[in-house]
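ok so for the tutorial part 2 we go from a plain amino acid sequence to predicted structure tokens. step 1 is just haveing the sequence, like this:
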Amino acid sequence: MEASPATFRLVVHPRSFSEEELIVNADAFPGGGIYRVYADGGAAADGVLLQVRPPSEADRKRIAQFSVLDSVADLFGLNARSLVRIERVEAASVRLEAITITFKDQYLGSADMRRVSTQFIGRCVYRSEVLRLGTANAAIGQMYAEGQAQVRCGLICESTNIIYRSRSAQVYLLIQLSREMWQFTTAGDMCYEKAVSGVLPSLLARWEAVSANHNVTVMLFSRTLYDDEAAAEAHAEWLGGVGCAGPAVTSMLVEAAATGSASQPRRYRDHYMVVAERVQRGDWQSMLVSLKLQLGLYPATVGCDGLQGVRNSSALQGNLFEAVHLSLNVLDRRHEPRDLLATGETIVAVTAGSAVIQASNELSTRRSCHIALPARHLRPCC
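step 2 — the prediction. this is what the tokens look like for a chain of 382 residues:
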């Protein structure tokens, strides 16, 4: 049962005095436990929850009643020598249902996450608190209490769902350049202009706002359809001549089943172009400039302009699954040495279609389910 709050003058101490966030005099606050400290006249929900740990003999003599770490007091707007209220609370009333822990520029495996989750059981935490994970640092993000909205502090218990979010992941950004990309939107701009001037800058700005340092790899891909065999041979001859863009574009000719139809011709060619590879935060803007240049030259680069019987496919007929599987080839190399400055892999696909794709059942399910690891929870890249 929670005790009635008492009013005191707030005393703060620097970290050089003590590493403890809350030091109390055992005679004034017997029994230890969890205490809520908040400004006199303010709401109790705006206060900070702090745990009392057994003080050293030197601290016991120097503290008349209680003292709060100065950085914690500043974070919650508690001024030194101001009137504050302090009350003891029961652990069951401040338990957290879910909590996010963010980190970057380091690798944490599943074993590390499980060990950290066990280490922090029974600890009170507050938002923006910096945690020490062995030789690495992490920060507390959003927190949710049982049956409530977001809270600023709470107690981690065995039932708390701890969600880890990496700010330094391997991100594979796949952009499908289908026929719809060169169609106008209702705003008057083309879809590819909306992608490189709206969607991607907004995504990078969101990452920069949270100080993320993802390694970004950008790949353009498309599929060229042929009306007949002569068109396929003419396009192959063009790609092998002086009109080819060089080794930057990888093209693969695919022989479809004999039951080809007008919606999916028998022969088509897939194109893949890596525009940027493992680009970090400082080079994201220059990556966008290079991406805009390559998008403008792409139709001429793959030879979809000016050749009779050669046309770009729609998003429905495109090679989205094939592009995803190329990224899975990289993610499947778990036997190779890890990048110790990155945790997590994410594939982001940008398309002008409606997310409906024509693909074989084996291509869409078998290999993806074989490679993918079961996720403990949804963990977005930012």
